[in-house]
Structure formats: C-alpha cells, structure tokens
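User: Hi! I have a protein structure encoded as tokens and I'd like to know what sequence might fold into it. I'm fairly new to this, so please keep things simple.
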C-alpha cells in the first residue's frame, strides 16, 4: 500500500507520454505517464548497475465517466519489477 508522501509525488502531472525518473528517500522511482501527463505505471525499488529498478511494480486504475470526471483513482500492486 502506497502512503501519502509518495502519493503526493506520483499523483502530480508531468510531461505527457514520458518515463520520469525520481528519487524518494531510499527508493528509486520510474513513473510512466499517459497522454495527459498523469502517472499510470510506477516502478519503485533500487536501481541496479544497468539502470533497471529492482523492487515493486504498481499500476494506476483511473476510471472516468463521459464528461471526464474521475470516478475511481487508485494504485494497485502488480508484483515484482525486474
């Protein structure tokens, strides 16, 4: 379960369709964004010598209705990132 301090960082709007690399305390983060700049996939752990993150992978569940307002918005743990 992701806590409030990390959610503040990953729920911000960034450059659209980009992989953003961030640092949070002892964790390396890689955040993939959608066409509106919202984070949709998060890799969280420690970066190895090749630049890959070893840790956990999360996916964001965003559900919108027809007028664009958000009905659901939460992050799900999808398993290990390798």
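Assistant: Happy to help. Inverse folding works backwards from shape to sequence: for each of the 82 positions I chose a residue that suits the local structure. Here it is:
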């Amino acid at each position: 379960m992701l806590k409030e301090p990390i959610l503040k960082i990953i729920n911000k709007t960034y450059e659209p369709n980009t992989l953003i690399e961030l640092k949070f305390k002892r964790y390396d983060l890689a955040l993939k964004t959608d066409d509106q700049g919202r984070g949709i996939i998060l890799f969280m752990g420690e970066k190895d010598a090749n630049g890959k993150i070893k840790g956990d992978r999360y996916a964001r569940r965003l559900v919108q209705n027809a007028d664009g307002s958000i009905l659901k918005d939460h992050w799900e743990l999808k398993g290990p990132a390798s």
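A useful reference point when you look it over: The longest helix spans residues 4-10. Feel free to ask if any position seems puzzling.
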